[in-house]
Amino acid sequence: MAPINIKFKSTGAYLPERVLTNQDLEKIVDTSDEWITTRTGIKTRRIAADEEATSDMAYEAAKIAIKRADMSPEEVELIIVGTISPDMFFPSTGCFVQDRLGAKNAVAMDINAACSGYIYSLVIASKFLVSGTYKNALIIGSEKLTSIVNWEDRATCVLFADGAGAGILVPSNGGSKILAFDLGSDGSYGKDLCVPAGGSRNPATKETVDKKMHSIVMNGNAIFKIAVNKMRETFNKSMAMAGVTADDITLLIPHQANLRIIESLRNFLKLPKEKVYVNIDRYGNTSAASIAIALNEVHEQGIIKRGDIIGLAAFGGGLTWASAILEF
Ligand code: COA
Questions:
Q1: In terms of C-beta density within 10 A (0-12 exposed, 13-18 middle, 19 or more buried), how is residue 257 classed?
Q2: Of residues 22, 255, 258, 296, which has the active-site annotation?
Q3: Mean pLDDT across the stretch 116-140?
Q4: On the chain, which terminus has fewer CB atoms closer than 10 Å, C or N?
């Protein structure tokens, strides 16, 4: 695979203020801090305010990224928002963000690839940049998953959370680049992780509401096993295409779905703990926002620098999976 000459000019993130702890969840469903910690690695997560929608969080993250890139909103040419919890079916969350930013000259769209959404957005945006179609792209992962969670289902409500991350991408002179990427999908497992109603298959009725069909349903065990395998497979593929080995990776930023899935990938790659970024303990699973938030954190804190080899790997509903190796 030929490298794609693009770079992150800047990043940004937004985490809602309200913190929901495992102890708080003990009061809502039959669960315990001990179960959640040992089975998932999550201790706390952020919950958006009632009036705060996905585009509001996306806007906050984007504003920071645009400012850090020393750009004006009018200069943004492409906006891609990865989300599975859009403000509305339509208009796209990207269009809402465009309007709030005043990014009048940008084309805006959403990508629905669940937890793989940020890597999908990265790859799609990069293709527009290297073809010369656009000079820059604002990519965002933003989710208000707590708006589509069944708060009576202890197997899912303890996992999912809210937040947003963003990045400004521009063409590079070859120093920074995407060395390789791998994207994949398998729709045959779609129903193992989905929101069954609200779309054209099961439009909203009193019955769909009563049966809680507008919230996330998940076959956790099945998803867990496929996630473990696919994360290994996709990351191996990207490493092979990039011509790197695990030893070359400065930092691996995996999608934060479950600490056990992250640990399984880390052990498979024989990476030491300090080479795998983990923030699931603080933020839970924020789907498309998770890698975007993590990438901003490591960038902001100076954990990564130009020239480092960064691995990204994600897996999510669809099913979808994605990985990329960046020379940052
Ligand atoms: N608190 C206490 N007990 C819980 C619980 C909770 N929050 N959620 C489930 N349980 C119970 C189950 O009811 C079950 O009880 P039983 O044995 O009496 O039937 C028991 O814990 C074991 O459930 P199981 O589903 O086998 O647990 P698990 O070890 O597989 O962990 C997940 C459950 C959801 C954490 C795990 O399957 C997972 O992480 N799956 C992948 C999820 C994911 O990543 N999804 C998003 C993809 S991006």
A1: buried
A2: 255
A3: 98
A4: N
The identity of residue 119, as a single letter, is: I
| 5 included as an active-site residue | no
Query: What string of H, E and C letters represents the secondary structure of the chain?
Result: CCCECEEEEEEEEECCCEEEEHHHHHCCCCCCHHHHHHHHCCCEEEECCCCCCHHHHHHHHHHHHHHHCCCCHHHCCEEEEECCCCCCCCCCHHHHHHHHHCCCCCEEEEECCHHHHHHHHHHHHHHHHHCCCCCCEEEEEEEEHHHHCCCCCHHHHCCECEEEEEEEEEECCCCCEEEEEEEEECHHHHHHEECCCCCCCCCCCHHHHHCCCCCCEECHHHHHHHHHHHHHHHHHHHHHHHCCCHHHCCEEEECCCCHHHHHHHHHHHCCCHHHECCCHHHHCECCCHHHHHHHHHHHHCCCCCCCCEEEEEEEECCCEEEEEEEEC
pLDDT tens digit sequence for 130-168:
999 999 999 999 999 999 999 999 999 999 999 999 999
Tell me the best of 30, 39, 116, 315 to mutate to test the pocket of ligand 1, counting ligand atoms within 8 Å of each CB and taking the most. 39
Rounded to two decimals, what is the model's pTM? 0.97
